[in-house]
Design brief:
Helices cover 22% and strands 12% of the residues. It is of the alpha+beta class and 445 residues long. It binds heme C (HEC) (2 copies).
Length: 445
Amino acid sequence: MKHTVDLYPFVALLALLPALSGCGAENMPDEDLGSVSEPLLGEQLPGISAPEFAVAKATFNAVEEVDEGLGPIFNERGCGVCHSNGALGGAGDQIERRFGRFVNGVFDPLANLGGSLRQLFRNDPFTGANGQSCTTPLEVEPSSATVHNVGRLTTPLFGLGLVDAMPDSFFDGLAAAQASSIRGVVNRVSTLLPNPSDPSQTVGSIRVGRFGWKAGVPNLVQFAADAYVNEMGITTQSCFRGGSVLAFATESAPNGVKQPAGCDDLAPPPPAGVPTGVDDAVGSCAGNRTEIQEDVEEFADFMTFLKPPPRGNISQAVTRGEPLFTSTGCSGCHVSTTFRTPSPSPNGVPTNFAFQPFSDFLAHDMGALGDQIGNAGDSLAVTRRMRTAPLWGVRFRHFLLHDGRTNNVATAIQAHDGQGTAARNAFNALSSTERSNLVAYVLSL
Ligand code: HEC
Ligand code: HEC
């Protein structure tokens, strides 16, 4: 694609807002999330060059079209269109959809039919690269799916570069400290696209997955390339220490049907030697250089250097709610631990930087709250695992839980199940004043 840095207004193509059912009588209106904004939200970490951050931010905010590689199917036209609540990089109102199938208790993402992510939009009919008429089919949920229309809400990105910097051993330590009844799983995954500035990462090296609702992604560089192709249909070839990485170089095929050459989008054809279908080719990886594709690098830089959300005001209710957060068991998973970035820092964030995300970033069996989406071969139990949602900045959110089913903190707590059952029951056993104090505390994080 051409490098688009123009700032477009945030115009969502279509409102993907869930139809929220009316709040139950037990929900006090003051517990609902509002549209809080805060001037300090969305700024860069201390010590990060403001002009460089601004360049990365503009790339994250760019909106793409078919002649820049968008499609054939996609969920939105720009990272910033979705990640926008409170400030650029925030959570979003967009809810994506996934499907899958269980065969003999084993999960099948139906990848050959376009799963498990169902892209919700397609390019409008256009004249293809070879002059032909191109009409992209809309992806639909296959009739063979047994897990239907699972929602995945857009998560906030503030502070995640600090989380990316943490060594695997830190997450092992958090798991080891947990009571066995709530102990999370350290989700070790293979790195498809390493962060070249981190010497411990190589293609295929194992790292603790810590990003996404399922903690399935090991670093922000990889998430950037993954989101570019899966959310926007923009493929990338990357070079890592002289080797070509093609993990994110294949166009999405609506329900598995590859679009004819020239009809996937209108990105300029790649240079000789680069596989066709790569929108944004960087050419040969000869010369043993380390190069990652520019947009992906800038998306990753923007996310890496976004500072955490600021803590809210400390009211009397907040002070009273704090001990309840521990006594009801919330802090078992939403740990109050102060994290501290290592020195040297593997990704350029400040060293010895203290932060409190209120998550262990581990995967927990959440029982009925689990979404039953997984990777090929996962058991039902594995598909019920969800990453402890970080609670920092919850007051800037519009919706909660992986499917965005509520905007009410108490309702979100009451949906906890599986390893979260004891904490949910302890919350329900509180007096109504105690419950609203605990919610006030959560909204101050
Ligand atoms: C259609 C809306 C949409 C667009 C466009 C989009 N995202 Fe996201 N983003 C989401 C959703 C939904 C999730 C949660 C995904 C999941 O875990 O299933 C997410 C999660 C993430 C996460 C994980 C954060 C965490 O909580 O661990 C990162 C990082 C991210 N997106 C980066 C990007 C980048 C970079 C782009 C642009 C290339 C982008 N996103 C474009 C909707 C979007
Ligand atoms: C066993 C671990 C565990 C315990 C204990 C726990 N949670 Fe959670 N919490 C999670 C997980 C996992 C999620 C994400 C669930 C989902 O959406 O699928 C979550 C989500 C949330 C959310 C929604 C956040 C978002 O981003 O949408 C809130 C609010 C929350 N928890 C508050 C609490 C409070 C308050 C307590 C104590 C009463 C508590 N939790 C106890 C694991 C836990």
